[in-house]
Amino acid sequence: MRTAPAPTATMTSITRNIQQRSYPLKGIMTWIQRTKNFLLEPTLTKKKCETEYLPGTTSFGMSVFNLSNAIVGSGILGLSYAMANTGIALFMILLTFVSIFSLYSIHLLLKTANEGGSLLYEQLGFKAFGLFGKLAASGSITMQNIGAMSSYLYIVKYELPLVIKELAGTDPSANEWYLNGDYLVVIVSIVLILPLSLLRNLGYLGYTSGFSLMCMVFFLIVVIYKKFQIACPLLLENDAINAPIHSVELNETIDDEMCKPKYFVFNSQTVYAVPILTFSFVCHPAVLPIYQELKGRSRRRMMNVSNVSFFAMFIMYLLAALFGYLTFYGRVEPELLHTYSKVPGAGVIFVVVRLAVLMAVTLTVPIVIFPIRSSIIQLLCSGKDFAWWRHILITLLILAFTNFLVIFVPTIRDIFGFIGASAAAMLVFILPSAFYLKLVTKESNRSVQKIGAALFLISGFVVMIGSMTLIILDWIHSASPDKH
């Protein structure tokens, strides 16, 4: 009876047969790798499902609240200023185009996520362009959301002291420590923002998002109401100090054109309009986390969430900008609430409005922290299991860095403008279209979808480069000593 050959002899025989049949070495290595992957595939698939593709648990309504809250925020306070420097007609055109473009980019992003096999923005960047794509996605998300957080905390810094003074009846010139905006930002960050930011699930913030949106709706109602209460030409506090005794004499010195709405305006501040609008509609870093936690997850369902959220925010933005502008016209400031604070006898209602806006932006910060923390973890600790110490440490570092920026930020307009022209343009225009062109291979490069994405990519570079150039030129002009 013939005995079985020894293992060594068998392997030698197989090797000899392979050499005799002239199998390419690359083919053999591919076969070995496939066999290895086949054996390991169940484990890898299980791990991937456990981390990224678990069924969502957040309802449609809560997802709408979360996405709407990610869209709204502090950007609404700068829209009246944008309208004052573009005119009503031009503003409406820009608002319509920016909202449509933002929705289109979400469509590209969701389709790319399905085709690319990842619900993480940074992983899509890595699959598309390697480490460079991952760094571009992570850097844009971090920069955009740090800018958004800074703008929210900027409002806390400058509005909360005014609210405390009104409620406590403190002398406006008082310099108590609890009236210092820098201290108040730190206190609010530790007491309110930090506990909510440490939650592991975005779905839990649906209730705070709903309350935050109600605060913004209340703000909108008061803005509309006050349009019919504040007469034009209005008398601001600075005017009252420098004005003649008789208000009639003051009215005679004010040009009648001040109270006429303008439909097309072009000046040095018009360059901030597109970045402010872009900044106001950026919610893309939060789209994939919300999509991941959506119950009954599908691309169509998430697009419905996006459509409802964007339509609601479009209406809210348009009304807030229009009635804010028609109240103050050319005298509206980059932060609308700050303009109301200069109206003598504005009433206790604006104390309540300030509180509502403060609550809204404060409750939005934890939602903004989620994509920043996720981006940092994906960049530095990709593939590692969840650890509470890392979760807490990154959250503390993000809040500390943002508080540091807020203490030294010069004006909220610069935040809206710079972030809107750079990171927001990357997230709305450039990255979704670039990832789509690279990862969606089922469509021909000559298809309508691919051509549209390519044109969208080009328009993104035009918006970013053009806006940044004009903003930098405006900064140089403003800093020039011989400016008139």
UniProtKB/TrEMBL annotation:
According to the UniProt entry, where is the signal peptide? none
Q: Which InterPro entries match?
A: AA_transpt_TM
Where it sits in the cell: the answer is:
Cell membrane
Please name the Pfam families in this protein's record: Aa_trans
Residues in domain Amino acid transporter transmembrane?
A: 57-472
| Domain of life where this protein originates | Eukaryota
From the Swiss-Prot or TrEMBL record, give the protein name. Answer: Sodium-coupled neutral amino acid symporter 2
Major localization class = membrane
Q: What's its membrane topology? A: Multi-pass membrane protein
Q: Which reaction does it catalyse?
A: glycine(in) + Na(+)(in) = glycine(out) + Na(+)(out); L-leucine(in) + Na(+)(in) = L-leucine(out) + Na(+)(out); L-serine(in) + Na(+)(in) = L-serine(out) + Na(+)(out); L-asparagine(in) + Na(+)(in) = L-asparagine(out) + Na(+)(out)
Q: Does the keyword Cell division apply?
A: no
Q: Which UniProt keywords apply?
A: Amino-acid transport, Cell membrane, Disulfide bond, Glycoprotein, Ion transport, Membrane, Sodium, Sodium transport, Symport, Transmembrane, Transmembrane helix, Transport
Q: Which family does it belong to?
A: Belongs to the amino acid/polyamine transporter 2 family.
| Residue stretches spanning the membrane | 64-82, 88-110, 177-197, 204-225, 271-291, 303-326, 346-370, 391-409, 415-439, 451-476
